[in-house]
Amino acid sequence: MSKIYIFDTTLRDGEQAPGFSMSIEAKVNFARQLAKLNVDAIEAGFPVSSPVQFEAVRQIARTVKGPRILGLARTVKADIKAAADAVKSAKKSGIHTFISTSPIHMKHKLRKTPREVLKIAVESVKYARSLNNFVEFSAEDATRSEPDFLKEIISRVIAAGASVINIPDTVGYSIPEEFGSMISDLISDVPELNDVIVSVHCHNDLGLAVANSLAGVKNGVTQVECTVNGIGERAGNASLEEIVMGLDVRKDYFGEKATQIRTEELYPTSRLLTHLTGIAVQPNKAIVGENAFAHESGIHQDGFLKHAQTYEIMKPEHVGRKMSSLVLGRHSGRHGLKKRILELGYKLNEKDFEYIYGRFIEISDKKKEVFDDDLIAILNERVKTGIELYKLDYFHISSGKNMVPTATIKLIKQKQEFKESAWGDGPVDAVYNAIDKIVGLKTKLEDYSIRALSSGQDAMGVVHVNVKHNNEVFPGSGSSTDIIEASALAYLNSLNRILVLKKLNHKR
Ligand code: KIV
Ligand code: ZN
425 and 367, same structural domain? Predict the structure, then answer.
């Protein structure tokens, strides 16, 4: 058996795509799930890019056990130092540094000659190695690079100490056959590649990211970089679940190459990401889409019922599509709730559990059945306790046709009550204006989305917002059977995060 390493970059390449930014606690939460999925490496973020990014990588490195934790760095000393500092407490850590090697990037983006790029790459890898003994080097835009220059830079950075060489198809330009031969040429022409991990990182601009990555595996790479649900820059990255199941289902084609992924965790991981980002996958998405295992047409159903393999190439249970839909009701009690929370993979301290229990009781008062999705929503909305935060105590809105929507709000912070009223373009705007009057932060609402979690009139609604403050985006989410309340909770969740960060920065 030869092992194919799975390097997950959901929290870096995935999270940097517009609309996918996550809070620190959401990132830590997701990284824990990645460890459960058993990925080999987690690229936890780009530490130098912001204090939030740094803190998220640092907390993941400190708390998530199992996979190697890496931070991204340009070939710039400050980036490399920040990445090294952020990952240093992980048992297995690493620095991923990159520079463009294609003529178009070197000339127009970097404004450097190939000789200068070569020198910077070698010096950066040496510097990174002086801070951490696991260094990955990526030749950005490798698929549009001159083959001879690419081979030269690869062999020089290996000599400088790189343990992984990553070949990205940065702009999703390659075609599988062509990408496969490029990999095979590199491996045969650069003998040093036999001593390191050879990796691919493909983008999906032509819808070929998974096909290109699998062509890489077929031609000898030992690591694939990918993201859950295929999220990432522009059209996204290669989808982790598709790569893993492609290798699993087509063992006959790929031979003895296998990942160590726990496939039953694929669906729960995809669902968790949807919850944390508020962005669902399309229904026909392979492996994790709503319809991926649904047989609608009569002919298909008939065949499927006679013999499942007529229309099913993998079992839904094998990818974890068996979450029980009905969970708990008002009378399930603390014990039942605790048990289900553990089954869903969350570990809570007593204080957080009491918060969740309180929210669970509130929700089960309003709706008879609490589903897994409802529970996950409130689990993900909880904010860190122990810090002064505003809590929603009361709100009243008045809205209708031909009238000005108004809202009155009461918030509580450290037992102190704050009341304000405001008007707005709609009831949500009025609520947000009243909250702004109390909290007094200068912010801009960048995104607002609302989604129903289950069917029926009493379904919970989940609101996701992205709020900009000082050029940084702070996501927030809130859930309730009342959409105005969910909207208020999401907004407060985000403002509280800004306040928490201000405190952290103040302490530094
Ligand atoms: O797409 C890309 O080239 C990247 C590199 C940083 C590996 O994301
Ligand atoms: Zn990328």
Answer: no
